[in-house]
Amino acid sequence: MEIEIPENWMVHTSRFFQSPEYHSLSQFLENEKKKGVTVFPESKHIFRAFESLPLPEVKVVILGQDPYHGEGQAMGLSFAVPNELRVKPPSLKNIFKELEQDLGVQLTKGESDLTGWVSQGVLLLNTVLTVRSGEPLSHRNQGWEIFTDQLISALNSREAPMVFILWGAHAQKMKLKIDTSKHRTFESVHPSPLSAHRGFFGSKVFSVTNQYLREFGVEPIDWTRISTQK
User: Fold this and answer.
1) Residue 173 neighbours by CB under 8 Å, 6+ apart
2) What is the residue-wise DSSP string for the chain?
3) Residue 1 pLDDT > 70, yes or no?
């Protein structure tokens, strides 16, 4: 597996890439390739979240579970899909629906890559960074969770406070690793159609997150800036 992670992230994760767990994960991914299994995202995008945003510039972390498992969807940023993808995933549609209701705005149709959020300091991180085509959670418990645990610990130890958005029970487990006396967490059910009506809609996650950032003395996020690709 090709590793291209900026030094400001690598310094906190280098021990993982020297560990038996990383060797086992690499072997697993290589075996998937040998079997002809399609894995998402493309290898060049696996570490895109870190390549796109230096650790010192992170203001908000949105924690997902694993990448989208449909063709042409996963792009290395949790919940994001390419702008040109005609049919958007239901979870992302619900995120945009809550955004419009929360802020009273109308979003530009077609934009969905969330690079506009990333450019403002939003880290779009999955706890598992790869998935088999058509099989959600198929790469769970293969070693990625150890890597992302180290990332959460590195973010938590940073002196500057940030906001962690934890959607769903899986993400909420990470709260135990976060110093809530320094950082802020926002928890709700997942934006999936299976749960969104049980507390995601009406949660006002975007306006509340900006309120937290203002309390930190940090410039809030313009959540309506979905994409940097015009």
Assistant:
1) none
2) ------HHHHHHHHHHHTSHHHHHHHHHHHHHHHTT--EES-GGGTTHHHHSS-GGG--EEEEESS---STTT--SSTT---TT-SS--HHHHHHHHHHHHHHT--PPTT--S-HHHHTTTEEEEESS--EETTBTTTTTTSSHHHHHHHHHHHHHH-SS--EEEEESHHHHGGGGGS-TTTSEEEEE--SSTTTGGGTTTT--HHHHHHHHHHHHT-PPP-TT---S--
3) no
Answer yes or no: are the C-beta atoms of 152 and 177 closer than 8 Å. Answer: yes
Helix axes 90-103, 205-216, angle to 10 degrees: 60
Share of the chain above pLDDT 70, in %: 99
Residues annotated as catalytic (active site), given as ranges? 66
Is the four-CA dihedral 7, 74, 190, 136 of positive or negative sign?
negative
Interval 114-132: pLDDT, tens: 999 999 999 999 999 999 9
Query: Model pTM greater than 0.90?
Result: yes
Greatest CA separation for the chain:
51
Rounded distance between C-alpha atoms, residue 31 and residue 204, angstroms: 43
pLDDT at 169: 87
Comparison of pLDDT for 24 and 13, the residue scoring more: 24
pLDDT 10s digits, 67-86: 999 999 999 999 999 999 99
**Residue whose C-alpha is closest to residue 193's, from 102, 99, 98:** 98
Cα angle vertex 181, ends 180, 187, to 5°? Answer: 25
